[in-house]
Specification:
Blueprint (H helix, E strand, L loop, with lengths): L6 E6 L3 H12 L6 E6 L15 H4 L1 H4 L12 E4 L4 E5 L4 E4 L4 E3 L2 E4 L3 E3 L12 E3 L3 H11 L4 E5 L3 H12 L3 E6 L11 H13 L3 E4 L3 E5 L6 E4 L9 E4 L3 E3 L2 H5 L10 E3 L10 E3 L4 E3 L7 H15 L14 E5 L2 E7 L8 E8 L4 E9 L5 E9 L5 H4 L37 E3 L4 E2 H8 L8 H8 L9 H14 L16 H11 L4 H8 L8 H13 L21 E2 L5 E3 L10 H13 L3 E4 L5 E6 L4 H10 L12 E6 L13 H12 L8 E6 L13 E5 L4 E5 L11 E7 L1 H18 L6 H8 L1 H9 L7 H14 L3 H6 L2 H4 L25 E2 L4 E5 L7 E7 L2 E7 L5 E5 L14 E7 L2 E7 L6 E3 L15 E7 L2 E8 L5
Parallel strand pairs: 1-2, 1-7, 2-3, 7-18, 9-15, 10-11, 10-15, 11-12, 17-19, 31-32, 32-33
Antiparallel strand pairs: 4-5, 5-6, 8-16, 13-14, 20-21, 21-24, 22-23, 23-24, 25-26, 27-28, 28-30, 29-30, 33-34, 34-35, 36-37, 37-45, 38-39, 39-40, 41-42, 42-43, 44-45
Cofactor: [2Fe-2S] cluster; FAD; siroheme; [4Fe-4S] cluster
Pfam families: Fer2_BFD, NIR_SIR, NIR_SIR_ferr, Pyr_redox_2, Rieske_2, Rubredoxin_C
Keywords: 2Fe-2S, 4Fe-4S, FAD, Flavoprotein, Heme, Iron, Iron-sulfur, Metal-binding, Nitrate assimilation, Oxidoreductase, Thioether bond
């Protein structure tokens, strides 16, 4: 289109909603007719404000939605640190702080909101902050270095996020909330009490029903005055008491303003001026401000639709349901959570010991059944994905609605997916309904598996939280229509994990190549390779990084540490039973200080060190190993910890030595690879301070010996362990535990916790028959297998740092091994040689088959991959979903597409697969990474020009 015919679209505000608007405008072709100028008041591009607390851990770059600082579309101009001071609607001109005027044809206001600070004395003192931007957090962090005690004014969503930030910074933290409970807008009193108990167990102090009268101090904060209560001695205060719409520009331009603030807009998000639109928190559709991101995203799409000339898009309100994790606690609220309907009835399940509260609000129908109106979930929100879509669906609930919120094994034996109406939104990230999933696998549909559904519909391809629901819907539909439910491990192995385990054991296989050649197809994938790696580790007790087996390992096992969202790792040394000497504590502290690591005490009585760079891992391990510590296997599907109370050695109630037994069992089962992670606990009396019944195996002392419980776990779907045998002697306990664990290792499905395995295999009675009564005659065999594991144990960290071949994996760049990631400067001796075609980065034999390395080429991170057939591919190393430079660390495999095997790499972050040939994401074809020309010249890998990949 000629430039004189193009329209000028100006967007004021580059927060999350403003960025979403620009994204939608570009994706839907609005830039074909419009030039877009985006004006952001902050000094940085849009970033994930929802995840603001993680800034201390991952940094600003990881939160950014636009790491490069510019949009790829040349018709979009982004100007940062630019303040708009006036709008002249008649002239269609905006004025900037420096006096510059900009003309617009259409203007979109996405100015967001600002923190509300109550007008209390002392609010302007030094060390008083608000919690809204990265700059706010930088100021809080700087002040925290000299502060000791902090208080957050406000106990809502943002207030608890702010409290988490202070807690992470090491401050003693108080939360002060005027309402009688935390999160008063979302949850009721009982849920608030449950949430408060969770938070206080972390060491924070909660003050509800507390009015702040003043911030005390002359120049700096020295305290906080509360009405009718003793003052708090604090030296840092954060106000997080809600937000107000940033509508000053609209007011000054005489746009209509809602009674409670916010720029009034119609259902198309158009203001009282036909050429000015408002979206996000500054807008008030129908006179109401929405303080959540999702409604703002919907408004952005509506305005893009209107500017494109579409007539269908309208903002008719928003679902204000909320599901999030606050200070490690799952909290969800949906629908009529407070039973406002006069005919509402409440169904409540509460377990104060486990810290779980669930409430359903239902209404009796004329048929005698019940309809779901809303609910609250605290401590366990795993049912949210099924329950929320039922609100307003008109569907009748089961005869006993309580079955929907009872713990696993105590509710209905039917399928929760059957309750979902066809129009229920299963995948909120990509707006995929149950009907679309069913249609994909129905007769005439394109799919025959859950994995295929994800590829076709994108359900589960983004955050992955709905994958289990997608799988269940597919399986239930197959069962209902008489089709065989495919239990194959993956497309490469038409057998279950248990069947594959037996095949490997019987044939004595030691290599993946032999297993896939004899019993599979293709070259494997990110599902079967880690499963085979785990089976080989369980049977052979070799080092997981030995030879070609290193390329089979999943995200964390591949580098013997836990990958974090920004590409760094966390390191957890083993502290058996939670015991640690002062000398070891000092070494852990020195390591954290010297390598700049964030430290946190875990729920398993260990110390986690976050932020370690890949190339620093061996040096960190060396320091820990030299001090007498070893790998804690926090990275593996293996035994993590055996938690203990202090037992009879210290506690006046203890009847047995729980610490001694916990140490013994942790050292016995350390390194045991299993289908999923394993956790244990030992309590020295019935008071159960070690929470043993929330573990895969839990032991509780009695006057006569020990009670053994099995099949418990915390996590997304908590389950209480069940009694396997009681009043056991020490030797009986160890024998039965050996058998139980090896029986689980041999027969459980991939990534199946002991709780679900126990239910599927026939319950605790069936396991008791095998383990205690030896009904199958497997007792000696299972005990012998465990004895072999115990005898062959070695520390993986020590073995790695003593093996030069294994150490070669732990470098930042293959062509600059001494340079740190991600910003590096070449040392002269590490500088790559430039050839006619491009840059020589390494020898081909430096890239292990079916794996990748990362090279520095022209200042960019380039992932170089080598397939089983010695083909070489090069991609940009950045995962576009997580914005971390990690693709080179992913599993390389193949998947069948259109009759051919497509080579791919699975990102180690969220497992999205990228075609090595094109860079296109196989799970979401609208996303792609750049590829590079690459070839092998005389045994040397040479990387050439970058090719931008155009996603479909």
């Amino acid at each position: 289109m000629p430039s004189h015919l193009r329209k000028q679209l100006v967007v004021v505000g580059h927060g999350m909603v403003g960025h979403r608007f620009v994204q939608a405008a570009v994706e839907r072709g609005l830039t074909e007719t419009h030039d877009i100028t985006v004006l952001g008041a902050e000094p940085r591009p849009a970033y994930d404000r929802v995840a603001l607390t993680s800034y201390f851990e991952v940094g600003a770059e990881a939160l950014s939605f636009l790491p490069g600082g510019t949009y790829d579309d040349p018709r979009v101009t982004l100007r940062l640190a630019t303040e708009v001071v006036a709008i002249s609607p008649r002239q269609r001109v905006i004025t900037l702080a420096g006096g510059e005027d900009l003309h617009y044809d259409e203007l979109v206001l996405a100015t967001g909101a600002f923190p509300f600070v109550p007008p209390v004395p002392g609010k302007d003192l030094e060390n008083v902050f608000v919690y809204r931007t990265i700059e706010d957090l930088e100021a809080i962090r700087a002040a925290s270095r000299k502060a000791k005690v902090g208080a957050v004014i406000g106990g809502g969503l943002l207030g608890l996020e702010a409290a988490n930030a202070l807690h992470q910074l090491g401050l003693e933290t108080h939360v002060v909330e005027l309402a009688p409970r935390l999160m008063a807008v979302q949850i009721d009193d009982a849920a608030g009490s449950t949430l408060s108990r969770h938070i206080e167990t972390l060491g924070l102090t909660v003050h509800t029903g507390a009015m702040t009268e003043a911030v005390l101090g002359r120049r700096k904060v020295t305290g906080l005055a509360l009405k009718d209560r003793n003052p708090l001695d604090v030296d840092l205060v954060v106000f997080s008491a809600g937000i107000r719409p940033r509508d000053a520009l609209g007011r000054a331009a005489d746009l209509e303003i809602a009674e409670r603030g916010g720029i009034l807009v119609d259902e198309r998000c158009r203001t009282s001026d036909e050429h000015i639109w408002a979206i996000g928190e500054c807008a008030a559709p129908g006179g109401r401000m929405y303080g959540l991101v999702a409604p703002g995203y919907t408004m952005a799409e509506v305005v893009v639709d209107a500017l494109l000339g579409g007539g269908a898009g309208a903002f008719t309100g928003a679902d204000l349901s909320t599901k999030l994790k606050l200070l490690g606690v799952d909290v969800a609220s949906f629908g009529d959570a407070f039973a406002a309907d006069e005919d509402a009835l409440e169904v409540v399940y509460a377990d104060a010991v486990a810290g779980i509260y669930k409430k359903l609000v239902v209404k009796e129908l004329a048929s005698g059944g019940y309809e779901l109106l809303g609910g609250i979930l605290v401590g366990d929100a795993s049912a949210y994905g099924v329950l929320r879509p039922l609100v307003g669906s008109g569907m009748e609930l089961p005869d006993n609605p309580e079955e929907l919120i009872l713990p696993a094994g105590r509710g209905s034996t039917g399928s929760a997916s059957d309750l979902l109406p066809d129009d229920a939104q299963v995948c909120s990230c990509n707006d995929v309904t149950k009907a679309e999933i069913v249609a994909a696998v129905s007769e005439g549909g394109a799919c025959d598996s859950a994995a295929c559904v994800t590829a076709c519909t994108r359900a589960g391809s983004t955050c992955g939280s709905c994958k289990n629901v997608v799988k269940k819907i597919v399986e239930d539909h197959f069962a209902a229509t008489g089709r065989t439910v495919d239990k194959s491990l993956c497309e490469h192995f038409a057998m279950t994990r248990q069947e594959l385990f037996e095949v490997v054991a019987v044939h004595g296989y030691q290599r993946f190549d032999d297993i896939v050649a004899g019993h599979g197809r293709g070259r494997g994938c990110d599902i079967c390779k880690p499963a085979v790696a785990s089976i080989l580790a369980s049977l052979l007790h070799h080092h997981v990084l030995d030879g070609a087996n290193a390329t089979l390992q999943d995200t964390n096992d591949a580098y013997l540490a836990n990958l974090q969202k920004n590409g760094t790792y966390s390191v957890v040394p083993r502290l058996p039973g939670g015991e640690v000497t002062p000398d070891k504590l000092i070494v852990i502290g020195e390591v954290a200080r010297d390598f700049g690591l964030y430290t946190k005490v875990t729920g398993g009585q260990r110390i986690d060190l976050f932020g370690a760079r890949l190339e620093d891992l061996p040096a960190i391990w060396r320091r820990l190993v030299d001090a007498g510590m070893e790998s804690g296997h926090a990275y593996g599907k293996s035994l993590r910890t055996v938690k203990s109370c202090v037992g009879s050695a210290w506690c006046r109630y203890g009847v047995q030595d729980s610490v001694g037994l916990a140490v013994e069992l942790e050292l016995r089962y350390r390194g045991l690879r299993s289908p999923h992670k394993l956790k244990g606990g030992v309590s020295g009396c019935a008071r159960e301070c070690a929470e043993a019944r929330g573990k895969d195996f839990g032991i509780i002392a009695t006057e006569k010996g020990w009670n053994l419980y099995v099949g418990g776990n915390g996590g997304a779907v908590p389950a209480h362990a069940q009694l396997l045998a009681g009043d056991l002697s020490h030797d009986e306990l160890v024998r039965y535990l050996d058998r139980f664990l090896m029986y689980y290792v041999r027969t459980a499905d991939r990534l199946q916790r002991t709780s679900t395995w126990l239910a599927e295999i026939g319950g605790v009675a069936r396991v008791r028959a095998v383990v205690v009564d030896d009904a199958l005659g497997l007792g000696d065999e299972l005990e012998a297998a465990m004895a072999q594991h115990v005898d062959s144990y070695f520390d993986e960290w020590r073995a790695t740092i003593e093996d030069p071949e294994k150490l070669a994996r732990f470098v930042s760049f293959v062509n600059a091994p001494g340079a740190p990631e991600p910003a590096v400067a070449f040392q002269e001796e590490a500088r790559a040689t430039t050839l006619t075609l491009g840059t020589a980065v390494c020898r081909l034999d430096q890239v292990q088959r079916e794996s990748g390395v990362v090279a520095l080429v022209g200042g960019a991170d380039v992932a170089v991959f080598r397939t089983y057939d010695d083909e070489v591919f090069a991609l940009a190393n950045v995962d576009p979903f997580g914005q971390a430079s990690v693709l080179s660390r992913g599993i390389v495999g193949t998947t069948a597409r259109d009759g051919a095997d497509v080579p791919f790499v699975a990102s180690p972050l969220l497992k999205q697969r990228f075609d090595l040939r094109t860079g296109v994401c196989l799970d979401d074809p609208e996303v792609a990474v750049a590829t590079y020309d690459v070839r092998v010249v005389d045994g040397v890998v040479v990387v050439g020009a970058r090719r931008e990949t155009i996603a479909s």
